[in-house]
TrEMBL record:
Source species: Taibaiella chishuiensis
GO biological process, one term: fatty acid biosynthetic process
GO terms for MF: [acyl-carrier-protein] phosphodiesterase activity
Protein name as catalogued: Acyl carrier protein phosphodiesterase
Species classification: Bacteria, Pseudomonadati, Bacteroidota, Chitinophagia, Chitinophagales
Keyword Zinc among record annotations: no
Keywords: Hydrolase, Lipid biosynthesis, Lipid metabolism
Length: 195
């Protein structure tokens, strides 16, 4: 899952949301002590969600479509496309307005906790808000931009054109992988938060 998925799986808890969103920007365990308990819980939850998603049978099948061209980055493309299907899932976002409202609430919550955010995420947040990444996952154009951003941040990738072609060519198959995955990850996270 990418940012929209991590935001949704925070279940409206501001500290969990902050931790869940910054999970990729916090390395190691020692630095965790510098965060409030709820944010720490969100960071650890982010890591567990990523591990769950990586090992899920639906994700493995989806990654197989990207692996010949993108090898180790196949999972990153699948994480992004899961956000596309989530943004269009009427179970979670019955209307475009409900998705838009959700994104605005998430950004507002993150702004209120800005002092806690690592520098890398803090620098990225204005771009995320300005271009409303969370909302724009819903369109294929938004996915094209998301894939380009992924390649821009990756060390060994040069183009996302093939990834976009794979998304379009296998759209319904990938959407089915998302549906095979989403209920499992929601159930998993609810259990983790109740432990």
């Amino acid at each position: 899952m990418n940012y929209l998925g991590h935001a949704l799986l925070s279940f409206n808890d501001p500290e969990i949301l902050a931790g869940n969103m910054i999970g990729d920007f916090v390395k190691g365990t020692l630095i965790l002590d510098s965060f409030p308990e709820g944010v720490r819980k969100g960071i650890l939850l982010h890591r567990r969600i990523d591990a769950f998603a990586d090992a899920h049978p639906a994700s493995l099948k989806a990654k197989n479509l990207f692996r010949p061209d993108y090898r180790l980055y196949a999972g990153a493309f699948v994480d992004s496309l899961y956000d596309h299907f989530l943004a269009n899932d009427p179970h979670y976002f019955p209307t475009e307005q409900s998705l838009f409202d959700f994104t605005q609430e998430a950004y507002e919550s993150l702004h209120k906790q800005e002092a806690l955010l690592p520098e890398g995420f803090r620098k990225m947040l204005p771009y995320m808000v300005q271009d409303n990444w969370l909302y724009n996952y819903r369109t294929l154009k938004g996915m094209e931009r998301s894939f380009r951003g992924l390649v821009h941040r990756a060390r060994y990738l040069e183009s996302s054109d093939k990834a976009y072609e794979i998304l379009v060519a296998h759209y319904y198959e990938l959407n089915q992988h998302y549906f095979d995955f989403i209920d499992d990850v929601v159930r998993y996270v609810k259990n983790e938060l109740n432990r």
